[in-house]
Amino acid sequence: MDVNGLNFWMLAQQGDWLPAAGSPDLSYCSSSQRLQLRSARTGPPLAEVFTTAAALVEAAPMARDAFGNYARWDAGSGHVVAGGSGPGEVPIFAPPPLQAVSDLALGYDGILYVAVAGSLILVDRRNRWPNFTLADPAFNFWRLLPLPSGGVLALDRIHSQLGLVTGQPPQDLPLAQPNPALLRSCQQNPDPPRVAAKVALPDSEAWIALAATSAPGQFALLSWTSATAANQDAWLRLVALDAALSQTLSISNQAQIQAAPGLAAPIRIEGVAFPYALAGLDNMRFAALASNTNEALIYDLSDFNPAAPAASVPPAGDSYILAAADLGPFVHGFDQPPYYANGSGMLPLLPLSLNAFSASGITTNQQTIDSGTAQSTWHRLFLEAILPPRTGVVVWLAAADDPAQLTGPGVQWFPHVAGAVDMSTLPPQTPRAVWLSTPTEIAFAAPLLGETPAPGVQGLFMALVQRANTAVRSMRGRYLAVKVQLSGDRRSTPQIAALRVYASRFSYVDNYLPELYREDTFGDDADQPGPSTRPDFFERFVDIFENQLTRIEDRVANAYLVTRPESTSDASLDWLGGWIGIPPGNYPPGRRRARIEATPKLYEERGTAQGIVDALDTATNGLCTRGAVIVIEDFRLRHTFATILGANLAITDDPLLPGYSGSSNSFVGDTLFLGDPYNAEFLALFADDIRTASEQAQVDTFFDQLAHRLTVFVHDQVETVDLGLISTIVEDEKPAHVASNILRATQGFMIGLASLVGVNTYLGPSKPAGIATVDSSQIGRYDLITHLPSLDPRLESDPAYAGHPAPVARLTGPAALIVNAASITLDASGSSAPAGSSIVAYRWTLEPPDS
Hints:
The protein is α+β, with helices and mostly antiparallel strands. The N and C termini lie far apart (83 Å).
């Protein structure tokens, strides 16, 4: 509400602009939160060939590993062959005779999954066990998709179902001969390969392809209306795997399958009838391949509501050109961009720099705008928008006291223009919005557009609401309908972050001037086309001054917002903090606001340990509360360590391991120490009297080492912590006579060694094991030397192909690998390799340190 008592109604969210089914010409960008023209394909319609598409559907996809090697099914030789690490190709797998491969994919777990004649064969590329065949009479393995968590998602087109395959065969180890008299309480392989769950699919569609999406745990299914050329449509379904697996597996009613949890309603993809391959891109976009064309069609579902009935999505205007027509299908891989098959090789799917948008798009407000008062006069509209050259926006408005009068073909709409618009199609004297230098008309509010204003191009645009080419141009009615039309040159698009409309008009003429200046034309006479009446012109002329004065009065009336930390602008935070003695900070605006709000409490606690904790919590968004930063007075760290079997206390660079000590090895409460009875340093603390001056000196020295001292443990293994910010806050908040020490605490929870939970130990999630990095990793602690799977065995110097020993890892970086305190040189010359080089680590044996 402004100073004149006018309220505004705003359109800004996706639900305000677009219907649930979406729009073929407009889209709402979820990242920028703006309405814009939809990216749209501009080429001629595709001339697909059904027989070609049907043949390409049967082609087995290739597999690609992290090294860029590939594996493919060679029907001529009857082998799965691999290439990429040497000239030509080498066979790596042979299915049973007369059985064809329908799909193959390298999993994240290093297993090559091969679908052969309805069965699934697991080929371990790390050679841990022999090939394993998984067969399920009720499931026909046809298409495969590797899962990041291990295993694969399989598509059964015969029985219309998805299957989740998990588990691994037991490793090929020497056979154990257990005593038959002993009871064996567990099975040898608790996680065998199996179809762990199935998801029923509608059997009314012909299932074509399966692809991953950019959303974790979500997948996409491609289908045709039928497997024939007549009456064909292509459909895309999104599947949330966890939700889909919760459904009853014995669903037989197709209506139940349509509404099954996790299985979204079908989305018709326009512009193509027989797509034969599908791949997921970033930001919920998909690429589809069709016959008889050398381009991939792109479909953008980032703003799409898959729950909308009869939903369809047109192809986007992104240009992805293929090397030739009728290539593919897409290659199974781990990263972006996707690859597609090109004969016996593969090529990446890359976009051109140009993009195309719809030429025009129109939408209406999805929520009723109700002023609450009959005959309300709608005042002004404001647009926060970006209008590149050759783009524009037309806002059509209509008002009535009966909402039924705002629907149907008989509605009388009145345009308001911003940007470059063809005025020849609009009524005479159509109002044109003006650009304002202020980013928003709402005093001291943050603009939704979030861009620096640029004259005439981006920022805030304003127009007086009026009925063009009528005798009385004031627009009256309780209810308002809004229709927004965006237009562009197909290379650029306008973007609207918000549209606000104010009512009911506060008229300076009606409130401050004699009646002779007021409008006296009403009814049908006011609706007549032509020039406006003199009072109407005078009203609109006075509104020019009203606009400027209202903006000034708004800022005066709302000036108190500048003095509130939650509402002042980012630029004013340091100025406001200076009122209460807070120096400028180098942390984000949100934390600076919290610091100003917390200042009264922090001043009450200043100089105490709790005050330091609260100040750190405020500046770091609760790192102390979450345990990532711990503030402790040093007298609570009076425990040291005696000999503990199996623990190496010689580490001196970790603040939680002080080195060898024989003082004590147990800590109970704040005062009870259990340790060496001959250590006078501790006994002197609790003796009834001090016998000698030497003992008194030891006591004084011990307390002097711990008094007026503060230690801040920073656990940055789980959360990133700004040590400079921590140091600055501690120095500002602690008393001048207290010495502080900031230590990076990296030790995890260890019983008897670093077991003071909440003091010197941080209980957090375990750091996942990674692949060893030269000159960085500590073997056996966090990172592992593991056998990275490769499809082409020649990359691994397989003895069967090159006669060289097989490596266990591929490492990049300098050639010195740190194992505890020992440095192992990996290259043959004995010198370190240059930074950034790639080396291969072979198997070795570590001798004991004293050998």
